[in-house]
């Protein structure tokens, strides 16, 4: 943001303080001055000239041969501007001057065979504005020969300050002056707002209704009648021109001036163009089109906050006004809008429209909701003075749900602990009061503060201490020669996740990294998503509830680019609300670190000795088993299989250790894949990393191998489709003898040949004894008994393998 030093001096006495010191102090307190321009130095050689004659150039049709008087002598100048004319007072750059726009130093030259002894300048060449079509013509009252630094008051220092997003208060000259007042212990002198009100009460002249109090908590209106639309006074034009604004007319220039003075964007409506003389603030219920002040038709998304009259929309709230209510030369009565809009609402609409304005830039970051009435009254004061307007009685101030200021307790000892050096209580209080903090209680140990409403970034004690440090001076932090830190034993999670990555890479998987912010559709695919308060766009409104939607987006992108065979993994955090109600503290949601494996396409390509193999459910299971062996060799994890148990999976399985689910995964449903335009099968598995860490922490022990041989028996049954693997497995484990040590499914088959609503499940049963070698008769007895029990329990039919 461009800041004028002369403008700052309206609010603070900086006499005796050098420009360099001001620049250095602002930068050190967090308001980085990226560049500054001393106009007196840049324009020292430029003077007011008078064009005494103009003739056509003898050798060029588009050039003029002029005589320019400097008050001392007349000089011949070749000029290419179409608007140059005899009798004009202009800005003249004599030989030896340096043009600001290109740093070109002038000298006597011949142009098309004719000598030229200087240059008649345009506004763009002087970097006073972007106007470059012709020379800058001055008023007739300006004295010929005087420096333009005096004629145009170009005796200022213009600073380019980088304002960080957390400092919306610094997007104004008063905000910058407030920091300087704290740095140099000066008084801040705010403008005195005085004016006379006449005529009827404002409620008889206009009305305001807010239908969306969430996105517009406060709206202030002020009405000024019988205004004269004309050019702004020179002081106002010069002031806003210096910071890069183009003067338009007195009304628009005043609203821009106040935006850069207080940081409060304003909008002036032609009151006669407002149907019913009414303002209605509401959000759109559906998509709509709207023509803005720049004469462009814009498509507005649903839930766009709009300023309307009794019949139509007249402005996009906080972003840009409409063409149908703009100020024109015929305007007589105006309504001044000064409002506080929800920052997230303005940010969302600005991003959706691709339209960023000076107003939206400020509203997005959060303006001072207590400043709205002051800014409206300041505008009315200046309009009354410079547009001959009559201010009618009263304000309209719709503010039903007052926003409470934040209170913070500051412990003086804590300031010393965090900063590493002592600041007296007196100095701390002085800094805070200069910055606008109100001390409501003070003791030797602590102070209770009310945070100023223009500082939405200050929420806790640490933020207050940061304010103290940046004003007191970071350069006063004492040097530390040695720091001793004693750390207790701590498990290194990052080392563990690095090991997971190594294991995944060893199996041929490639890492992907996705944005944890997702759109509503993706976030609600799985889990209970959390909506953030200030999303940058509609595509980043929610925290992800699972790694799966992001993985599917990556698969879609790769397939679209010709890569269909993928082995991918990702490690990242997922977030879920515990209930449907809004989040009020950290206990209302969960944050879990997950690891996902994704398999799709071909596992192996066609070779002369083998056919290609497409990935399937068993490949996924094999990868999961291999991965678990790599990270947890001694821990036995059981499988649980499900059909249609999870809305995102067609069928899936879980890995369970000591009744805790370590991970789950399976084949993604076709309906889900269709949402991502994926036409090939996708298999994925998500691990809970905290569960994997607990596995890896278990002490590894040697287990003696079984001394006696194992006996394996396979069996397959035809069940009703409603019967689940978990039911059958649980029954077999319960009814099987103590010789049965393991039950695993190795085949799941569905076909019309099995019968209507039937499916086949095949199991592998492992028998052994720790005391002896089992005989065939012993195995057959318990195996046949189990076959009969399963057949009777589930009305199943034994099927040949």
Characterization of the model:
It is a single chain. The model has no long low-confidence stretch (mean pLDDT 90). It contains 22 helices and 45 strands. A hairpin with a 4-residue loop joins strand 7 (98-99) and strand 8 (104-105). Strands 30-34-35-41-40-39-38 form a seven-stranded mixed β-sheet, with helices on both faces. Helix 5 packs antiparallel against helix 13, helix 8 (250-262) packs antiparallel against helix 11 (372-386) and helix 21 crosses helix 22 (776-794). The radius of gyration is 38 Å and the shape is elongated. It folds into six domains: 2-40 and 157-184, Phenylalanyl-tRNA Synthetase, Chain B, domain 1 (2-Layer Sandwich), CATH 3.30.56; 44-151, Beta Barrel (OB fold (Dihydrolipoamide Acetyltransferase, E2P)), CATH 2.40.50; 197-398, Phenylalanyl-trna Synthetase, Chain B, domain 3 (Phenylalanyl-tRNA Synthetase, Chain B, domain 3); 407-473, 2-Layer Sandwich (Phenylalanyl-tRNA Synthetase, Chain B, domain 1); 493-697, Bira Bifunctional Protein, Domain 2 (BirA Bifunctional Protein, domain 2, 2-Layer Sandwich), CATH 3.30.930; 711-799, Alpha-Beta Plaits (2-Layer Sandwich). Helices cover 27% and strands 29% of the residues. The protein has 801 residues and is an alpha+beta fold. The longest helix is centred in the last third of the chain and has 19 residues, at 776-794.
């Amino acid at each position: 943001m461009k800041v004028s030093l002369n403008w700052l001096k309206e609010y603070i006495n900086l006499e005796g303080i050098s420009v360099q010191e001001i620049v250095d102090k602002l930068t050190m307190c967090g308001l980085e001055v990226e560049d500054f321009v001393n106009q007196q130095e840049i324009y020292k050689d430029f003077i007011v000239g008078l064009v005494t004659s103009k003739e056509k150039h003898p050798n060029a049709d588009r050039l003029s041969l002029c005589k320019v008087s400097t008050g001392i002598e007349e000089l011949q100048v070749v000029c290419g501007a179409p608007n140059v004319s005899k009798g004009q007072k202009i800005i003249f750059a004599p030989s030896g001057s340096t043009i600001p726009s290109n740093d070109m130093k002038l000298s006597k030259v011949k142009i098309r065979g004719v000598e030229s002894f200087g240059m008649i300048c345009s506004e763009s060449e002087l970097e006073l504005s972007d106007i470059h079509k012709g020379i800058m013509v001055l008023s007739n009252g300006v004295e010929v020969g005087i420096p333009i630094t005096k004629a145009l008051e170009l005796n200022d220092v213009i600073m380019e300050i980088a304002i960080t997003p957390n400092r919306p208060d610094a997007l104004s000259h008063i905000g910058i002056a407030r920091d300087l007042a704290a740095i140099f212990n000066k008084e801040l002198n705010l403008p005195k707002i005085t004016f006379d009100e006449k005529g009827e009460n404002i409620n008889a002249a206009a009305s305001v209704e807010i239908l969306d109090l969430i996105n517009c908590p406060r709206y202030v209106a002020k009405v000024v009648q019988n205004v004269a639309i004309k050019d702004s006074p020179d002081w106002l034009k010069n002031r806003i021109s210096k910071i890069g604004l183009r003067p338009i007319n007195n009304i628009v220039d005043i609203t821009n001036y106040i935006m850069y003075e207080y940081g409060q964007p304003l909008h002036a409506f032609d009151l006669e163009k407002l149907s019913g003389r009414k303002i209605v603030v509401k959000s759109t219920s559906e998509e709509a089109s709207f023509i803005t002040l720049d004469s462009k038709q814009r498509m507005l998304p649903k839930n766009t906050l709009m300023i309307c009259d009794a019949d139509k929309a007249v402005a996009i709230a906080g972003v840009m006004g409409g063409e149908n209510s703009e100020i024109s030369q015929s305007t007589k009565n105006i309504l001044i809008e000064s409002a506080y809009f929800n920052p997230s609402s303005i940010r969302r609409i600005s991003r959706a429209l691709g339209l960023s304005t000076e107003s939206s830039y400020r509203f997005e970051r959060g303006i001072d909701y207590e400043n709205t009435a002051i800014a409206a009254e300041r505008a009315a004061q200046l309009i009354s003075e410079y547009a001959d307007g009559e201010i009618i009685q009263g304000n309209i101030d719709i503010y039903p749900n007052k926003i409470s200021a934040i209170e913070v307790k500051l412990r003086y000892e804590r300031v010393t602990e965090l900063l590493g050096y002592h600041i007296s209580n007196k100095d701390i209080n002085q800094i805070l009061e200069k910055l606008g903090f109100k001390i409501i209680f003070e003791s030797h140990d602590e102070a209770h503060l009310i945070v100023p409403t223009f500082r939405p970034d200050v929420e806790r004690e640490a933020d207050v201490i940061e304010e103290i440090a940046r004003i007191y001076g970071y350069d006063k932090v004492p040097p530390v020669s040695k720091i001793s830190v004693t750390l207790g034993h701590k498990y290194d999670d990052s080392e563990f996740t690095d090991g997971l990555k190594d294991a995944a890479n060893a199996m041929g998987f490639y890492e992907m990294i996705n944005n944890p912010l997702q759109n509503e559709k993706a976030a609600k695919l799985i889990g209970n998503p959390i909506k953030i308060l200030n999303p940058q766009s509609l595509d980043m409104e929610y925290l992800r509830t699972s790694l799966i939607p992001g993985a599917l987006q990556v698969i879609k992108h790769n397939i679209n680019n010709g890569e269909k065979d993928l082995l991918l993994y990702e490690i990242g955090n997922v977030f879920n609300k515990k209930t449907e109600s809004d989040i009020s503290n950290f206990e209302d949601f969960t944050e879990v670190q997950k690891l996902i494996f994704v398999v799709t396409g071909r596992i192996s390509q066609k070779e002369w000795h083998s056919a290609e193999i497409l990935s399937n459910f068993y490949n996924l299971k094999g990868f999961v088993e291999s991965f678990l062996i790599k990270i947890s060799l001694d821990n036995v994890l059981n499988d649980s299989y499900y059909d249609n148990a999870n809305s995102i999976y067609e069928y899936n399985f879980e890995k369970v250790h000591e009744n805790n689910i370590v991970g789950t995964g399976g084949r993604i449903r076709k309906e889900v894949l269709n949402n991502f335009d994926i036409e090939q099968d996708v298999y994925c598995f998500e691990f809970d990393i905290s569960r994997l860490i607990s596995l890896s922490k278990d002490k590894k022990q040697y287990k003696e191998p079984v001394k006696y041989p194992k006996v394996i028996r396979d069996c397959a049954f035809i069940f009703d489709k409603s019967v689940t693997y978990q039911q059958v497995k649980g029954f077999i484990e319960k009814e099987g003898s103590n010789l049965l040590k393991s039950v695993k499914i190795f085949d799941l088959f569905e076909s019309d040949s099995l019968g209507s609503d039937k499916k086949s499940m095949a199991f592998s049963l492992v028998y052994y004894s720790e005391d002896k070698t089992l005989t065939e008769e012993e195995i057959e007895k318990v195996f046949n008994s189990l076959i009969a029990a399963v057949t009777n329990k589930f009305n199943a039919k034994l099927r040949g393998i």
